[in-house]
Design a protein that fits this description.
The protein has 25 helices and 28 strands. By secondary structure, the chain is an alpha/beta fold.
């Protein structure tokens, strides 16, 4: 700080986590000429960019009056708040923050279920481990083998990537990257496997086949801590699995339904609250409860019980995986069979080994949960869950260790039927499960982050009233009736106690709010007062911070001295080998999935849309599209930070030289990427650092004149639409402009 201004942002050299370029560049966000200066109301058609400056009183009075009218006419279900992570903080729009509390105290609103971020991770962990995210980035130093599977931690996990570097330097750890393009992480790796997008589970099943066939799995761990020995039958009488599976063709769909499998339990159907599960004891030659001591549970074999044929879950896993031969895996994934075999053998031999899942792009697909399950299968088979530095690593945080409180007291409201996050536009247009009349968006940029942008625009246009609360005129704000200029994190006092950091820390106020911007706390408090429930919001900031901290056992005085680490010194997820599943074990056979109508055992499913799946569509759109993480942005944030745009100044399409040559595309040439759903323009990056048949896009807006201060009565020109969300597709074509 100099003369009341933020002059430079650096990482604390004494802090464990390193700062990334996005963080140290936030001075560009704070003082950006593109920030909103004051509240505005729409005077033209939605999206036309015609605005009128208004006072805060007029803005808040208008919003409160419209909310009262809509609630009296249509009830609380007529409101849909769309909040995002924002600054991740508790007194803003962060997850479970003040924005959520506001709508709770309003009496409720239409909720959204699931997320656009990590439902595949959540469901995969629920299915096999009974929940709980597995985050151990500080413990990477103890790992001896890393697989960065479909993600790019050198960019998306900059603060912790140093731990991988240290493990490699000090302990000889190996790093493998599985990614269609040669990412920054691949550049650090011992091996890069350029997989065909959408075939990751086939690769995992090939690894499982190798590990099981070559007896590379940890037998004692599997018997003691997983439900692999549990007995299961197919249908009423069971089948001779060994004989039947000989007719299963490698790499093709199973001729049976895995949903017809049934575990042997006391209840007979596996649905009782506390069922007893059975294994086959090789010592006595009988089926016995899995909890019985001094037994030798079988992993292989077929056993007749009450005139039905049962096999261990392990035998079924082996039979399913056996179809994923090295030849079949190579045909599906286009990874050389020798590389896939080496990967399986090396991973099984290394202890401890880590699969860096990290909300990977590979799980943000229609079969994303299966990918997460496949990672857990691999880790469990090799005894890599519940050991220091081993397991499946995703981004967790404070809530793994302690609960956090609400800034204000919450209340019980009548339930309102929700809308899936992945289908907001569709549900709004079809008025499912009911009609929504008002949208309130804060801490997110809906137009760039939700699928089907064109439908989302139509949904916004149909709304009675739309409010957007943001520091910038985003592409979502363009479609609002009222736009409210929110503060950045440097202009208000707040607390960070979230789901992605192990630390609880004070977010200190550096400067007074610029222009007429106001903090999220101030905005929501003023609205709450106008709506008749402002007493708990209209409190000193420190009182609200103490409410957040109360369940954590951490005091405000402690975080005023610096960030407080709430994790143990050496954190081992599932270190006690206790899992919140019906069996108390890791469940290869998932009763959770079966009860939801899905296959209870892992099997590969083809992508919904891929060139080899829809060969007719591939004649028009033969290329597969993947988005990439980049140093200069997080989704649509940071796109106008001048020093970051110098790193990556605009929209770039990475394309293999063979695909470029077929289309007459040259490096640096201007191209269009398109399909039936949309189009974008970009600069071609012709390279062999991406596999043939795949293109990778980076969205970004270069600033031609950073000194220009656009009128605050018109939308900023910097309102990106994410290509992946706009096209909502994995099949595209590229042509010269």
């Amino acid at each position: 700080m100099e003369d009341g201004q933020v002059k430079k942002i650096t990482g604390d050299p004494n802090f464990n986590i390193m700062a990334c370029g996005r963080g140290t560049s936030r001075i560009n966000q704070l003082y950006s000429p593109h920030r909103l200066h004051y509240p505005m109301k729409r005077v033209g058609e939605r999206g036309a960019g015609e605005w009128e400056r208004i006072s805060w009183d007029e803005a808040l009075d208008t919003i409160a009056d419209r909310m009262k009218t809509i609630r009296s006419e249509s009830g609380n279900e007529a409101f849909l708040p769309l909040g995002g992570t924002g600054n991740w903080s508790s007194l803003s729009t962060g997850i479970s923050g003040l924005f959520s509390a506001f709508w709770n105290r309003f009496g409720g609103a239409t909720p959204t279920i699931s997320s656009l971020c990590c439902p595949g991770v959540t469901e995969g962990f629920n299915a096999a481990l009974g929940g709980n995210r597995s985050e151990f980035r500080d413990e990477w130093i103890h790992s001896r083998y890393f697989i960065a599977w479909g993600n790019n931690p050198a960019v998306s996990n900059v603060g912790y990537f140093k731990n991988i570097v240290a493990a490699r330097r000090d302990n000889g750890a190996k790093l493998v990257t599985i990614d269609p393009r040669h990412s920054e992480t691949a550049g650090h790796s011992d091996m890069w496997l350029p997989i065909r997008p959408g075939t990751d589970v086939a690769l995992a099943l090939g690894m499982i086949n190798t590990i099981m066939t070559e007896k590379l799995f940890d037998e004692s761990y599997v018997k003691e801590h997983t439900n692999a020995p549990f007995l299961v039958k197919l249908g009423k009488d069971g089948i001779d699995l060994e004989a039947e599976s000989k007719n299963w063709t490698p790499g093709t769909e199973l001729p049976i339904s895995l949903q017809d499998l049934e575990l042997l339990t006391t209840s007979g159907d596996g649905d009782s609250e506390n069922p007893t599960f059975f294994v086959w004891d090789e010592e006595t030659g009988k089926h016995v409860p899995s909890s019985q001591s001094d037994i030798k549970p079988a992993l292989y074999g077929s056993f007749e019980i009450d005139n039905a044929k049962y096999q261990p879950v392990h035998q079924w896993m082996a039979a399913i995986a056996k179809r994923y031969t090295p030849e079949a895996v190579e045909a599906l994934t286009q990874i050389p069979r020798s590389d896939a075999l080496n990967l399986a053998r090396e991973y099984a031999a290394a202890k401890p080994a880590t699969i860096i899942q990290n909300m990977a792009g590979a799980q943000r697909t229609d079969q994303g949960t299966l990918l997460v399950l496949s990672h857990i299968y691999l880790a469990a088979l090799t005894g890599n869950i519940g050991v220091l530095g081993g397991g499946v690593n995703d981004n967790g945080g404070v809530t793994q260790f302690v609960p956090i409180g609400s800034p204000v007291p919450l209340q019980d409201n009548p339930p309102i039927e929700p809308i899936p996050q992945t289908a907001v536009a569709k549900y709004l247009l079809e008025e499912k499960p009911h009609k929504v009349r008002m949208l309130y968006v804060a801490g997110t940029n809906v137009m760039t982050q939700h699928p089907d942008t064109n439908s989302m625009i139509e949904a916004f246009e149909r709304m009675d009233f739309v409010v957007v609360q943001d520091p910038f005129m985003t592409s979502t704000a363009k479609y609002a009736d009222i736009v409210l200029p929110a503060c950045t994190s440097f202009e208000t006092r707040d607390v960070l106690a979230g789901i992605r950091s192990r630390y609880i820390q004070l977010m200190e106020q550096a400067i007074e709010p610029l222009y007429e911007s106001r903090s999220d706390h101030w905005i929501l408090t003023e609205l709450a007062k106008r709506l008749g429930f402002g007493e708990d919001f209209d409190r000193p900031i420190d009182d609200l911070i103490r409410n957040v901290l109360e369940p954590t056992g951490v005091s405000l005085e402690e975080i005023e001295k610096g960030p407080v680490l709430v994790a143990p010194e050496k954190w081992i997820p599932f270190g006690d080998k206790k899992f919140n599943t019906p069996s108390g074990r890791i469940e290869f056979f998932s009763t959770y999935l079966q009860q939801k109508g899905f296959d209870p055992i892992l099997e590969y499913k083809e992508p919904v849309e891929a060139p080899w799946v829809d060969r007719e569509l591939a004649k028009k759109y033969p290329l597969q599209l993947v988005n990439r993480r980049n140093h200069n942005q997080v989704n649509s944030s940071f796109i106008h930070h001048q020093n970051l745009t110098e790193i990556w100044p605009g929209q770039v399409v990475q394309i293999n030289s063979s695909d470029a040559n077929q289309r007459g595309i040259v490096h640096g040439g201007k191209v269009s990427v398109f399909n039936d759903r949309g189009t974008m323009e970009a600069t071609a990056d012709v390279t062999d650092q991406i596999r043939p048949g795949v293109i990778s896009v980076t969205t970004g807006w270069g600033i031609t004149n950073e000194k220009e201060n656009p009128s605050q009565l018109t939308p900023s020109k910097l309102d990106p639409i994410s290509l992946g969300q706009t096209l909502n597709s994995s099949m595209v074509e590229v042509k010269l402009q």
